[in-house]
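thread: overnight batch results

M.L. [08:02]
morning all. the overnight job finished for the chain we discussed friday. pasting input first so we're all looking at the same thing
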Amino acid sequence: SQIQGREKFLKVIEFL
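M.L. [08:03]
and the structure it wrote out:
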């Protein structure tokens, strides 16, 4: 879903 992609992006930002 679109939300999944958004959550993944947020996760990447948190990782940085």
